[in-house]
Design goal:
BirA Bifunctional Protein, domain 2; alpha+beta; 22% strand; 12 helices; eight-stranded mixed beta sheet; Helix Hairpins; 2 domains; 426 residues; three-stranded antiparallel beta sheet; single chain
Length: 426
């Protein structure tokens, strides 16, 4: 969340920056400034009365010591106590409203985040590789997967419902190979430590990364326990260091984690209903960094290259785009999306988002750092990125490596993970 002190000092600037996300985005900020002023007034009133009570109580003590009547002063002290309770109660209520309002205000876009209302105004940064040269009409991943017997959507509907899939035989093996390949690349070559965290998390964890309270409708919650299925490994991995102080010399701390992820996809009905592009349950390798504030934007550029390394090793054509303010995620200050080429759609589709959250998540989760020379602890900056979404990578491999006979050529880096297998055939 945002720094209340910064809001007091630079309210107008932050108002303008927030409205870059869209008209009216800064309304909660304006209300927060009012709440903060009311809260401070209530605290001042309470403190003034407490000081007056202290003076009167001393007078009562003197009168009693001298054997004089102190009833009038005691009655006044009683009245002051009631007024103090009233102002303290008001301050507590305003403090709760202040925190709730803060939790619902998104992060401030970076100055290097371009203006724009939606994804159509995102800024293309670069492209890598070449589109595959197919001398036949490309099939989509669902046609390919069903014909090869490696994807079964119909039985998944029977088992669970819409937006679920069963990976079968060579398909299940390919998905597992992709996950292992990504983990090995990030841990052996890019310096990440692997974590395998829980996929059920508590409310505090989701507040820490910004999913709650704003986006509860997109989460799956357990009926009998105060636990939620994670929408991404960003949640448990970022909260791994919640309420901790990390030694400055340990930074950057870098984790890679594979998990299942779960999303209701609220509001996305009608989008990508065919195939496995947008599922309620999906697999993802997530990259999370805890870094020094002064290095966070350099670390973001570095994070993007680590996500890119997977696509480059697999020879998949993609582009990198800088998201505009209107397309930016709630907690992010700056985000790059990696979009892989899909021949059947003749377009690019997102396969990774890499974001710098500055101190926004760290303030919510109280993750700080401190130098060994002492000094006051300061908030770290957190970053994360998909490294990558395994289901979408599965789609990209099927579509880009499809052959005229409907088989799939397996990219060379994946073959060792599939016992040397070079092709998926019916």
């Amino acid at each position: 969340m945002l720094d209340i002190k910064l809001i007091r000092e630079q309210g107008e600037r932050l108002h303008n920056q927030l409205n870059r996300r869209g008209p009216g985005t800064a309304q909660d900020l304006d209300r927060l400034i009012e709440i903060d002023a009311e809260r401070r007034e209530a605290l001042n009133k309470s403190q003034t009365l407490k000081n007056k009570k202290k003076t009167l109580s001393a007078e009562v003590g003197k009168l009693k010591k001298q054997g004089e009547n102190a009833d009038a002063l005691m009655a006044e002290v009683k009245q002051i106590n009631a007024e103090i309770d009233e102002w303290d109660g008001k301050a507590d209520a305003l403090d709760e409203e202040l925190r709730t309002t803060l939790l619902n205000i998104p992060n401030i876009p970076s100055d290097t985040t371009p203006d724009g209302a939606d994804e159509s105004q995102n800024e293309e940064i670069r492209k890598w590789g070449e589109k595959p040269s197919l001398d036949f009409e490309p099939k989509n991943h669902l046609e390919l997967g069903e014909a090869l017997g490696i994807l079964d959507m119909k039985r998944a509907v029977k088992i669970s419902g819409a937006r679920f899939a069963v990976f079968r035989g060579q398909g299940a093996a390919l998905l597992r190979a992709l996950i292992q390949f990504m983990l090995d690349t990030q841990t052996r070559e890019n310096g990440y430590e692997e974590l395998y965290p829980p996929v059920l998390v508590n409310e505090d964890s989701l507040k820490g990364t910004g999913q709650l309270p704003k986006f509860e409708e997109d989460l799956f919650k357990l009926r009998d326990d105060e636990l939620f299925l994670i929408p991404t490994a960003e949640v448990p991995v970022t909260n791994y260091h919640r309420d901790e102080i990390l030694p400055e010399e340990s930074l950057p701390v870098k984790y890679a984690a594979y998990t299942l992820c779960f999303r209701r996809e609220a509001g996305s009905y009608g989008k990508d209903t065919q195939g496995i592009i947008r599922q309620h349950q999906f697999d993802k390798v997530e990259l999370v960094k805890f870094v020094k504030p002064e290095t966070s934007y350099d670390e973001l550029e570095n994070l993007v290259t680590h996500a890119e390394s997977i696509l480059q090793k697999l020879g998949l054509h993609y582009r990198v785009v800088n998201l505009c303010a209107g397309d930016l995620g709630f907690s992010a200050a700056k985000t790059y999306d990696l979009e892989v080429w899909l021949p059947s759609q003749n377009t690019y589709r997102e396969i990774s988002s890499c974001s710098n959250f500055t101190d926004y998540q760290a303030r919510r989760a109280m993750i700080r750092t401190k130098s060994k020379d002492g000094g006051k602890p300061e908030l770290v900056h957190t970053l994360n990125g998909s490294g990558l979404a395994a289901g979408r990578l599965f789609v990209a491999v099927l579509e880009n490596y499809q052959q005229a006979d409907g088989s799939i050529q397996i990219p060379a880096p994946l073959q060792p993970y599939l016992n040397g297998k070079e092709r998926i055939s019916k």
